[in-house]
Amino acid sequence: MNDCLLSIIIPLYNAEETIKRCVDSVVQQDMPNYEVLLVNDGSTDASGQICDEYAAKDSCFKVFHQPNNGVSAARNIGLDNARGNYVMFIDSDDYIEDGVLSTFPLQGDIVFFEAKKLLKDKSTKILYELEDALTPDIKYRRNFIKKYINTEAIRVSWGKFFRRSIIKDIRFNVGQIMGEDT
Fold first, then answer.
1. Are 7 and 35 in contact (CB under 8 A)?
2. How far is CA 158 from CA 8, 12, 139, in A?
3. Partner of 54 at 20 to 30 A CA spacing, among 60, 85, 93, 150?
4. By three-state DSSP, how is residue 181 classified?
5. Measured between alpha carbons, how far is 89 from 11 in angstroms, rounded to an integer?
6. What does the pLDDT read at residue 1?
7. Where are the alpha helices (DSSP H) in 33-92?
């Protein structure tokens, strides 16, 4: 039986300036039974070494080093090696606020959580409200999808959990540069 509840996939390329904040934000969560798959996509800076240091300290970290093939290939390596019942993607320049992962019941095929975008002026923009994402009412969930279908909330891979069994054969399009996680 699989005891890993959540696989967190973090692709990275030359992210030595941001990867520690990203990974530390995961470590600070109160979430049992998770793994973190760090996929180093041919970084030429210290990113790969930083990932190896995390893996040396904690067995929940798995590090994969590949030649630079792009973020889609890196995410696919993560998917190929994920063991969790759910999968979550975090970009290496993003982070999770304290306590976020412990507040979500992992049930359903896709679980959205509130996401904020940091703007150039350092202010934040909420992409969608947490209440919108967590409602148990099916009619309201349909309205949520209609409301956000043409926004980043739906199109991007981050900001949600996916039940691994529903995406087991889906992979990102390697070679696509723009909108690769749509």
1. yes
2. 10, 14, 24
3. 85
4. coil
5. 8
6. 41
7. 47-57, 71-81
Counting DSSP H helices and E strands in the chain, the numbers are 7, 8
Residue 107 in tokens: 């049930």
Percent of the chain beyond pLDDT 70?
A: 69
Q: Where are the alpha helices (DSSP H) in the chain?
A: 19-27, 47-57, 71-81, 130-134, 138-148, 152-155, 164-167
In which residue are the tokens 């202010």 written?
A: 123
Give the DSSP letter of residue 59. Answer: T
- Separation CA 68–CA 71 (nearest Å): 9
Q: Is the pLDDT of residue 167 over 50?
A: yes
The residue among 71, 55, 79, 68 whose CA lies nearest residue 11 is: 71
Q: For residues 18 and 29, what is the distance between their CA atoms, to the nearest angstrom?
A: 18
Q: Which tokens go with 151?
A: 């926004």
Q: What is the pLDDT of residue 152?
A: 62
* pTM beyond 0.90: no
Residue found under tokens 């994402």: 133
Confidence band, pLDDT 50/70/90 cuts, at residue 140: low
